[in-house]
Automatic annotation (TrEMBL):
A Pfam cross-reference name: SirB
Natural source organism: Pseudoalteromonas arctica
Protein name in UniProt: SirB2 family protein
Gene Ontology annotations for the cellular component aspect, listed alphabetically: plasma membrane
Superkingdom of origin: Bacteria
Transmembrane segments: 6-27, 39-64, 70-88, 100-122
Secretion signal, residue range per the UniProt entry: none
Alphabetically ordered keywords of this record: Membrane, Transmembrane, Transmembrane helix
Transmembrane helix listed as a keyword: yes
């Protein structure tokens, strides 16, 4: 498989995943009707599944080990944090708490993007 094709596919899926995250988040701040849509639910999960598959494919093609590349390990940790924050945020009842989670999650998304672009670890 061509590395650049998989990389660009991964980037496009990442953008779609982020857009769907915000669609669901803003829907939860309002009526929540979009979140309840079966197509949005299935589409979000399918998008995230393809994002994971493309990430694993990229690591395999490039022969990158997250235990050797600290920036990638940090990115994986932040992706897990992003997922956890999203799950916790979706269960909140108060709008103010939902907004706080949205802001924090936006920061996590920004850090993931920065790691993807710079390939320079922050902490590890």
């Amino acid at each position: 498989m061509d590395y650049l094709a998989v990389k660009h596919t991964h980037m496009a899926i990442a953008v779609l995943s982020i857009v769907l995250f915000y669609v669901r988040s803003f829907s939860r701040l309002g009526s929540g009707a979009i979140v309840k849509n079966k197509l949005v639910f299935i589409g979000s999960h399918a998008t995230d599944t393809f994002l994971l598959i493309s990430a694993i494919t990229l690591m395999a093609i490039a022969k990158i080990n997250p235990l050797e590349q600290t920036w990638l390990l940090e990115k994986i940790i932040l992706v897990v944090a992003y997922i956890a924050l999203g799950i916790i945020a979706s269960k909140q009842q108060k709008t103010s708490i939902k907004v706080v989670f949205l802001v924090v999650t936006t920061g996590v998304i920004a850090l993931i993007g920065k790691l993807a672009v710079t390939k320079a670890a922050f902490v590890l």
